[in-house]
Amino acid sequence: MISLLVEANLADVQVLIEFKAPITDVRMDLLLVGSYPQSGQMSIVVVENKQWSRIYRDKYADMVNVTGAPGSNPRLHPITQAWGYRQVLLDYISLVAQSAQVHSIVNMHEASTETLYAVRPSLLNISCDQSYIRWYGAEHRTAFKRDLHRILAPERADIYAHELLAAPVSPTGGLMAVVSESVCRRSVFTLLDEQREAYDYVRRAVAASKQGAPKEVVLIVGGPGTGKSVIAVELLGALNRQGVRAVHATGSRSFTQTLRDNVERMDRRARHSFSYFNSYTHATPNDIDVLICDEAHRIRHTSRKRSSYDETQARPAGRPQVTELINAAHVPVFLLDEHQVVRRGEVGSIELIKKAAQYMKLNVHQIDLRHQFRCGGCPEYVTWIEQLLGLGTDEGPQRWNPLDTFELYVARTPDAMEKYLRRKIAAGKSARMAAGYCWPWSKPRSDGTLVNDIKISSWSRPWNSSAERKVNGIPPSSLWATDPAGFDQIGCIYTAQGFEYEYAGVIFGRDLTWTSQGWIVDVQANQDPAVNRAPHFEKLVRNTYRVLATRGMRGAVLFSEDLNTNRLFAKLGVPLLPDE
User: Fold this and answer.
1) Phi first, then psi: what are they for 8, rounded to 5°?
2) Per-residue confidence at 69, pLDDT binned at 50, 70, 90?
3) Fewest C-beta in 10 Å: which of 30, 204, 409, 446?
4) What is the mean pLDDT of residues 496-502?
5) What is the pLDDT of residues 218-252, one digit of tens each?
6) Beta pairing class for 552-560 and 518-521
7) What is the DSSP string of 443-506?
8) CA proximity to 330, closest of 368, 271, 284
9) What's the CA gap between 513 and 536, in Å, rounded?
10) Which of the 8 DSSP states describes residue 378?
């Protein structure tokens, strides 16, 4: 690519290598920055390099096959990938949207003209404006250089490149803020790389099922902030608009009820697209086209009421819930994070789903989501939290290295944490405080007011309401994470899981504390009967704090009631709150 620029007398344009996309850690191969010849304004050319010499059209969808061998995995079309990069620049960098011309190029420098022609965007009905995107193969070098001259000049390249690198990134809105638009009207989120691959693959599976292809299970796996729920609601909206009967299901009352409440403001009928995992006990086989099982780590052994069987049994009586879900749809889709199992009886895992599919003689197609779209697009923070808590790693707590796009602090007191987060809210941000379940939970008083159960020194606050409707301005539990009045209560794992806000305050209780021997757990300090009698109590508690600590999109504040644990955060290099 550099040689081509030199040959084209464009050696003075600026080349940004592995440019980090806004709001995520996705890296674009190259950004060429210069001026637009006709106007002199900033010109940006996104270049996606592909070394594929051959690609083939997929049988069922607008995806491609790299090997051409029957049964090989379909891949995201390079044009779709490059178009997504262009869109995310326009969506999240206002300087680009207001002042730049942006084009995308796919550089398939080893592919023949015949190869590209066989999978051209117009043939596959790929949605993009072809006046802003091109692709070139091995035989197109002259045309490549000619076309670059039409959209790129070296004048002011260095100035524009520095302006782009310094440009602020607009914050992404939370899922709940736009879910009704996504489900009821149009696509809202720009899906990148594996996110888009997962989205396209499910649509491919729908097309394949309608042509009589064998049924298969789609498994989408990713950690917090990788976009699982975004994929789920984008799929739900797109499929239903196409006349495909798709239903969304979770095992979370708060998450499902909040989704329903948000979409019915725009279309009351849309609330029926959201259901629960235990809704399919008597479902007719393959009655639904697509069943999107979000938060699939919350799948239980069976759909029977928890009180009717012993969840510690190895094989509780009744048909497995995962089998019911697979059985209910032509295309069953599961989205999960194995480290978000936080309650006794939750058994959702990759192994569980694969074993169920194998027993039913069905294939499983797994897609792993690698890129981070929450926590400032910083996978480093999620990794740090997992190392801190000893989840999936033997490395143990590591020193914190501050990041430009994510704020992390430790508070000396919960009062300091609350004041800091209130300042964020006053500045127009969203914030919530959540805690480990280490304090009793009293019933509301007769007038509906809440008891300040969480007491730490002179500071005290109530848990979130357990009511099903708003009382005296206090939101119900299902709306704690999204109603502005929710900040006045402390959330728990069940009201926080599945949600996101810009700044997360996390209060560690005495059920998990740090000593000279490492982490110790104390069942007696935990007040949650759904957890403290579980055989894997320690894992559930560590998972709980991982979930609470990864709700923030832009920052987090940590505080532990245990002094040694709070000192650990500071010793690891987490700075104290400003002005504390």
Assistant:
1) -90, 10
2) low
3) 446
4) 92
5) 999 999 889 999 999 999 999 999 999 999 999 98
6) unpaired
7) PPPTTSPPP--EEETTEEEPBPP--SS-BTTBPPGGGTTTSGGGGGSBB-HHHHTT--EEEEEE
8) 284
9) 17
10) -
